[in-house]
Amino acid sequence: MVSESFKYITATFLLVSFLTYSLVLYFHSPPPLGQSTESTAAGKLLWQKYNCTACHQIYGLGGYLGPDLTNVYSKKGIQHIKAFLKTGSNTMPDYHLSDDEIESICDFLKVIDASGNSDPRLFIKNSNGTIQLIQ
Amino acid sequence: MEPSSLSNKPNSYNYFVVALFLLSAGLVFGLLGALQYIIPGFLKEYLSFEKIRPLHVSSVVFWIILAATGSTLTYVQQHTKRKIYSSFLMKAQLAIFVFAIAIILISYIIGVFGGREYWEFPPLLALPIAIGWILFLFNVFKSLKGLRNQPVYVWMWMTGCVFFLFTFLESYLWIFPYFRNNIIHDMTIQWKSYGSIVGSWNMLIYGCSIFLMDKISESTHYSYSRIAFSLYFLGLFNLMFNWGHHIYTLPTHDYVKNISYLVSMTELLIFGRIIYSWKSSLTQARKNLHIESYRFLLAADIWVFLTLFLAILMSIPSINVYTHGTHITVAHTMGATIGINTMLLFAFCFDILKSKNNAANTNHKYSLISWAFTNISLLIFWITLIVAGVLKAKWQMAQTQIPFSSMMKSLQPAFIIFFLAGCALVLGLVAIIQRILRSN
Fold first, then answer.
1. Contact B133, B164 (CB under 8 A)
2. Residues with Cβ within 8 Å of residue B244, at least 6 apart in sequence
3. DSSP codes of every residue in B219-260
4. Is the pTM of this model over 0.90?
């Protein structure tokens, strides 16, 4: 048997820690890397509107049918991205995007590209189990 | 403690019927999604992958949520030996959920999405889900009347109720530009909420499991024990702080990653130990009396250990960097949602829905075959995903990479076995669903 007071104290301690941690995370945002504009904000909403994450990944998070797009902007270039967005592919439907929509999505991918690198080969594996991105 | 439900047809019956229907739908969508891996472009014009994936994920998540809330509402009544506080609220909750789920699934088909990874739907449709959950929370809290001298499963039910609501609302913070416009901040908060929301429904499911174990063994020894409360507090600690293992490669704060690395996934380990200890204390007679539920608890026990092994590996950042973004993550999810959650929910279904008349008429041979067939298929399915994940990890780490499409082509044999094992798994699960529905 565990005493009632011990249960209440432990639960209260955990709850207070959790709420504090949550508030810290809400108001201590990571530094925004890459210049965000109205167009990139629109691009992000288009990314969600067409549910791109169902097939593509950003930082390895998303579906696995298509490739990770975190650094596609710097690796493949804007024309490569535009070609796919305009016509689709064997597996990706043609969404009949307007030129403005294509520009916004490209701007969004440019900001993501500037935010960091998702290539797992660029991480040093430390002996304590942690990892570190090669600068 | 009552050995069976309060009446032949429990008042939560409709929860299980809808939940089992959603599971069946989720299985069909899952197979269609798997087919799109082996036949690129299959159904591209009508149900392309960006539609199929949320249809599959949401159907299965709602199976878990409805079966978990239905089981909790039933076991709350069996625990208090009273009817639920409000039958009206219980019916209203189900009606709101069914209405919202139907609209959500239709919205995917017509191409309207929330566009978030991985459980997503348009924010407006989150409102009825939140309202339905508040009704559930109110009903459970009013029926239980406090935590004083309550067994651990009551603590788990109440925690699951509160934390689901908190994390569900948190997952919609992105609608505010402050959270949305910094992509890294947005992804950090998103995975904070999604990591914890899974822990929230697990609280309900694990709470029901401990209740059921007490019921089968006719002993409350475990639910008041130190080990059970250690499990609970460690589980709660994990629910709150271990979500960062999803985002080790994201350029967010280092403390997020370090905290989640330290808070390892010990929750499952202790849970596994409790089931193991409980199992060895049962007599053969008690096992035979609840043979259907017992088998599924046993299966969940095995899957806890398999999933735990993978989870521990994946929670180490230097290993996670290999497994992240590969099908090994999917294998972990499948092990947890089918191997653990679904097996436990089936155990509750058999316990709650099986009528006393039918208990004696169980075809034990058919029952054992469908149980074994499902678990063997799941094991092949799980191993194939790991193999596909290892091959993709090898590609991700290669100094000279072949194109993505060529890599996907080279994984075709694994995807074909994955699809065939998936078909076998669906057959096994459908046989079990059919037995559950016929058992009442």
1. yes
2. B191, B192, B195, B256, B257, B259, B260, B261
3. --TGGGSHHHHHHHHHHHHHHHH-GGGG-TTSSS-HHHHHHH
4. yes
Reported ipTM: 0.95
Task: Find residues 67-126 of chain A whose CB sits inside 8 Å of chain B.
Answer: 67-68, 90-93, 111-112, 115-116, 118, 120-121, 123, 125-126
Contacts of B309 (CB under 8 A, 6+ apart): none
pLDDT digits (tens, 9 = 90+) for B303-356: 988 888 888 889 899 999 999 999 999 999 999 999 999 999 999 999 999 865
Model confidence at B301: pLDDT above 80: yes
ω into B118 cis (within 30 of 0)? yes
Q: How far is B340 from chain A (nearest CA, A)?
A: 23
Using CA atoms, how far apart are residues B364 and B311, in angstroms rounded to an integer? 34
Candidates 1.10.760.10, 2.60.40.10, 3.60.15.10, 3.30.70.120; correct CATH number of A38-123? Answer: 1.10.760.10
Among residues B320, B68, B334, the alpha carbon closest in space to that of B209 is found at: B68
Return d(Cα B337, Cα B403) in angstroms, integer: 32
> Mean pLDDT in runs of 10 for chain A (135 residues)?
92 97 95 79 96 96 96 96 95 95 96 93 91 85
Domain range annotation of chain B: 283-440
